[in-house]
Amino acid sequence: MRRQLAILACILCATPAFALDMPPRKAGLWEITMKFDGRNIPGQTVKHCIDAATDKLMNSSAGGSPQQNCDKQDMSHSGGMVVVDSVCHFNGATTTSHAEITGDFNSAYTMHVTSKRQGGPPTPGLSPTGETSMTIAAKWLGPCAAGQRPGDMIMSNGMKMNVLDLRKPGGAPRLPPR
Q1: Where are the beta strands (DSSP E) in 58-171?
Q2: What does pTM read for this prediction?
Q3: What is the DSSP letter of 176?
Q4: Which of 65, 75, 85, 153 has the fewest Cβ atoms surrounding its Cβ within 10 A?
C-alpha cells in the first residue's frame, strides 16, 4: 500500500503541470499509465473517473495552492506541444520540474516529466538524488462505469480512492476485499 500511495503522490505532484491554463479533459473514464524511466519500478495504471468540476479542481490545485507554493510556473506552446516549467515548495523540499505534453485532452495525451527534488524529508520510493523522470500516457476509455463517481481512482491493485474524499478528514484509500 505504501508504494501505491507513493504512486498516487506522483500523480498528484505531476498535476501542477496542469495548474496553468491547460485545456480541460473530456469527462468520463481515463486510463492513466505511469512509467518511471531508469528505475526498477513497474509501470502503474490508474483508472480515473472525472467530470468538468473534478478536472478543474485537479488542474487548479493538486490538493494545495500552487500560487502560494510555486515561485515559477511557466507554460509555452510550441507546435503541438505544451511545455511547463515550475519550481515549487512542499514539505520543506524544493522541486524543479520540466514537462512536455503532446496529444489532445479529448482522447489521449502523453506527458514526459523530469524533476529534481532538494531538501525536505526522504520520500519512500524516490531516488536518493531527488531526480525523477516519468512518462504518463492517458487515454479516454468512455463514460465512467456504473457506480463510479467523479474523482474515483482505481489503482492497478484494485485499491480505490476518491481524490475529493482525500481532502476530507478520514478520507483514506480503501483496499479491495480479499
Answers
A1: 70-78, 81-90, 93-103, 108-119, 131-142, 152-155, 160-162
A2: 0.76
A3: P
A4: 65
What is the pLDDT, as a whole number, of residue 165? 82
- Residues 140-171: tens digit of each pLDDT: 999 998 989 999 999 988 888 988 887 665 54
Nine-digit cell string for 177 = 476485499
For 22-83, the DSSP string reads PPPPPSEEEEEEEEETTSS---EEEEEEE-HHHHHHHHHHTTS-HHHHEEEEEEEEETTEEE
The answer to whether the CB of 87 falls within 8 A of the CB of 96 is yes
3-state secondary structure of 166: helix
| Rounded Cα distance, 26 and 160, in Å | 21
Sheet holding 44-50, edge to edge: 70-78, 81-90, 93-103, 108-119, 131-142, 28-36, 44-50, 152-155, 160-162
Mean pLDDT score of the chain: 79
Q: What percent of the chain has pLDDT over 70?
A: 72
